[in-house]
Amino acid sequence: MRLNQKQLNHLPVYTQSGDFLGRIADYVLDTQQHQIIQYLVGSSSWLKNILSQQAELLIAQDQVVLLSEEKMVVQDSILTEPIPKKKIKN
Description:
This protein is mainly beta. It has one domain (about 5-75): SH3 type barrels. The protein is about 10% helix and about 40% strand. The protein has helices at about 5-10, 45-50, and strands at about 10-15, 20-30, 35-45, 55-60, 65, 70-75. Strands 4-3-2-1-6-5 form a six-stranded mixed beta sheet. A hairpin with a 4-residue loop joins strand 5 and strand 6. The longest helix has 6 residues, at about 45-50. The N and C termini lie far apart (about 55 Å).
């Protein structure tokens, strides 16, 4: 399958377990190999809260499980570091 830039932009991104992460906002090309090596995903609002307002995720090409005209599915383990818990002030 081949997708053009118009089809790829704003494609929804989900984890294997079905969590919506956001939509493809951009991508990084390797000009020597002529391929996409990373996808930039604008994260959903619930994920922004978890990631301390980080607005974007970088998804490596090897983390992509499925890419179709309807959606992208990535491995559940896209986060490589544990998410720090915020302390609640009394």
